[in-house]
Amino acid sequence: MYRGDLVTRKSYGEDVVFEIIDINRQNVFLSGVEYRLVADSPITDLNKVVDYRLTKDYMRSHSKVEQTQKMIQRYRREQQEANLHTMIIRSEQDDEAELKSYFEVPGKVLHLDGDSRYLTKSLELYNKLRVPVEGHYFREKDMPEQLYELLPKVKPDILVITGHDSMIKNRRNRDDYSLDSYKNSRNFAKAVKIAREYEKNKDTLMIVAGACQSHFEALLQAGANFASSPQRILIHALDPVQIASKISYTSIKDTVNMLDVISYTISGIKGIGGIESRGSYRIGLPNIKNNENNH
């Protein structure tokens, strides 16, 4: 086996597909293809994946991602139709074409990711969904300090703080409600607190925080709007993106439908939870570009 090969672990029932990222004499180091999970394993416990597209991991994840993309795109169309209908009712103009010249201002996302591969995947999905985004790769422990500079510079409407996390195994007297029992939840919580010092209003800056098995309660207490993981389960690499994208295209006049937004994720309510929050999508008039094209 070599770096870049896709494998599963026999001892875990081959439940998750990994990519080999490094090998030494004793262990093989792995990173989940779909889930935000890093692990190591003896080479004897690994099976090589022949065709990734035939794995349950691929079929489950990609069918849900495609479904979610269609749901978000359909929601955007419905939002556009509702905006146009509202403006026609409220306007005394008879020219519907003039009213259709409005422009959209979806919420801007600042996405910090502790894994460069997942960051690339996330940015690809944001772009497909036409969500304005600026993304950066930082180690989880460096995220709090980096936010001091990035927040006033980027001025995001939505902040995503994610990467890798896990509950620390084989620790005596482990307390599942202590941040000491988690690999990176403390770093995520620090980053959320710094963001909340920058902007206290939870409807002005919405924060999506956490990764696999993160300390859900601590992240919400620190000031996150949405966080993982209520049941300490693995979350899909793109779940934070799905949440942020739905917020980005929910009108500032509306609150984000909690069950609706969580249904957009692959992990569901066991993996993602949150508090009632307003959207960050706005419309404006007139569309200058359209007016310029008419002259």
Note down, in words, how this protein is organized.
With 295 residues, the chain is an alpha/beta fold. It folds into 2 domains: 6-54; 62-284, Rossmann fold (3-Layer(aba) Sandwich), CATH 3.40.50. Helix content is 36%, strand content 17%. The chain has 9 helices and 13 strands. The protein has helices spanning 56-90, 96-99, 116-128, 143-154, 185-198, 216-222, 239-248, 258-263, 288-293; strands at 6-9, 18-23, 28-32, 38-41, 46-48, 103-105, 109-113, 133-137, 158-162, 206-209, 226-227, 273-274, 282-284. It has a 6-stranded mixed β-sheet with strand order 8-7-9-10-11-12, with helices on both faces. Helix 6 links the parallel strand 10 and strand 11 (226-227). Helix 4 (143-154) packs parallel to helix 5 (185-198). The protein is globular, with a radius of gyration of 21 Å. The protein starts with 5 loop residues before the first strand and ends with a helix.
Name the descriptors.
alpha/beta, Rossmann fold, 6-stranded mixed sheet, 5-stranded antiparallel sheet, 9 helices, 36% helix, 17% strand, globular, Sporulation peptidase YabG, Peptidase_U57
Extract low-pLDDT stretches: none
Order of helices and strands: EEEEEHHEEHEHEHEHEHHEEH
- Shape, please? globular
Helix coverage percent of residues? 25-40%
* Helix count, DSSP H or I runs of 4 or more residues: 9
Distance between the terminal alpha carbons, to the nearest Å? 63 Å
Instruction: Please give the largest β-sheet.
Output: 6 strands, mixed
Overall SS class = alpha/beta
- CATH fold annotation of the largest domain: Rossmann fold
Q: Overall pLDDT, averaged?
A: 87
CATH architecture of the largest domain: 3-Layer(aba) Sandwich
CATH C-level class of the largest domain = Alpha Beta
Going by CATH, the homologous superfamily of the largest domain would be: Cobalamin-binding domain
- How much of the sequence lies in strands comes to 15-25%
C-alpha Rg (nearest Å): 21 Å
**Oligomer state of the chains in this structure:** single chain
Q: How many DSSP-defined strands?
A: 13
Strand order of the largest sheet: 8-7-9-10-11-12
Protein name: Sporulation peptidase YabG
Organism: Chengkuizengella marina
Pfam families: Peptidase_U57 (PF05582)
